[in-house]
Amino acid sequence: MTLTRIADIQVHNLRYEVPGVGFSYGGGKLTGRVTSLLKVTTEGGTVGWGAAYSHPTLVRVIVETHLRPFLVGKDANDIVGLWQRMYRLTRWYGRKGVAMSALGAIDTALWDLKAKTMQEPLYRVLGGTRGRVPVYASALLWNDDLSELAAEAHRHIASGFRRVKMRLGRTEAYDIEAVRAVRAAIGPDNGLIVDASMRYDLDTAVRIGRILEELKVVWYEEPFEPEDIDSYTALRKQVKVPVAAGENDFGVQGFREMLRASALDIVQPDACRAGGVSEVLAIGRMAETFGAKVATHTWSDAVALLANAHVVSALPNGISVEMDRTGNPFIDELLVTPLRVEDGILILPDAPGLGVEINEATLSRLALPVADAVPDGAYSDMSFGSAYDFVMPPYHPEG
Questions:
Q1: What angle do CA 327, 373, 66 make, to 5 degrees?
Q2: Does some domain include residue 392?
Q3: Given this model, what pLDDT does residue 62 score?
């Protein structure tokens, strides 16, 4: 028996139903959350964890039905070789989307295993020396009462964050007044990030971007859909606030297109979407050659968040990670030892690997049974069931 050979790979699909009426933002009305955790076990009994954010049923099929037979018995330390093997196996139906997310979850688990074998935190294995990374509170969804929105922003600052991110894309009048309200609530010494949820056209984005400059916004996220590279490039020429995107892209090739077009100041890959730790590391290094910074996206679970944080900590151009503060149990309750934030800094675990110990009670409570389809609902980027075929009305500039 070779202790580092892969013995098994399991998918744990999780689902959480948002209580009450859910909340609204540029993606529509959210009623629940889903994520997929990957558990890779070696012949020696060591466990590595990864995460995928995509269609849960498809993640399970790709990992357990397609990829697992090719990986069991292979050396878990051959991370580069196994990534390339998985990519080639899925290329004919992958390259973007669920296939990249699924293989990326396995890749992250392999990095967790490798760092555990070396008895080092992952960021050190990746070449980093700082077990600390700036983090921002990601919340501030649409709210009819701007005083409530402002109070929420103040609570995030009071809880130890020094930057907050809010969602725009409702109407131009709302967006501008909401940004002013949150800026006033957090004061000039704390950072404000805005996410336009891919709802703007170029003229609107320029108009609002100039107001964001005045309000000292840290970065201007996803004003356009990821395919609209020309608008990103044009916007950067007309506003001074840094432009960011990447959560809806996959792999080095997607980010290379954006960087070659001079479309972004800040790239936002996500290990649980873009192809795992290996690919986020490669994207980050490529971004550095273009003079771009890295601020990873995370809107799913604590395993993904920590995977991203270890990479950002190891990158010289890594500037921040995202932490969902909407009451998501995949963030708040998944780990035995909760995530620790002090004065705007996420403290990375000193334990080997990712440093995660999964709370088995939470895993069991939120597990989606293997034989069950995803219940109908709106799960952030994914909707299931015709009753949730919600299409946002067009954005109303100056409305």
A1: 105
A2: no
A3: 98
Neighbours of 127 (CB within 10 A): 11
Domain encompassing residue 254: 123-355
Q: Which amino acid is at 127?
A: G
Structure tokens, 239? 């506003």
Please write the tens of the pLDDT for every residue from 104-116: 999 999 999 999 9
Judge whether 395 lies within some domain.
no
As a whole number of angstroms, the distance between CA 12 and CA 370 comes to 8
pLDDT, tens only, 262-284: 999 999 999 999 999 999 999 99
Give every CB contact of residue 208 below 8 A, 6+ residues apart in sequence.
168, 172, 175, 176, 196, 200, 223
Q: What tokens were used for 362?
A: 């939470």
Residue 87 contacts by C-beta under 8 Å, 6 or more apart in sequence? 94, 103
Q: Is residue 90 assigned to a domain? A: yes
The number of CA neighbours under 13 Å toward the Cβ of 319 is 18
Is 35 within the bounds of a domain? Answer: yes
Same domain flag for 36 and 108: yes
CA 32 to chain centre: 17
Query: Do β-strands 23-25 and 28-30 pair in parallel, antiparallel, or remain unpaired?
Result: antiparallel
CA pair distance 133, 112, nearest whole angstrom: 18
Give the span between the Cα atoms of 66 and 94, in whole angstroms. 13
- Let me know whether 98 and 158 are in one domain: no
Three-state secondary structure readout of 156-222: HHHCCCCEEEEECCCEHHHHHHHHHHHHHHHCCCCEEEEECCCCCCHHHHHHHHHHHHHCCCCCEEC
CATH code of 193's domain: 3.20.20.120
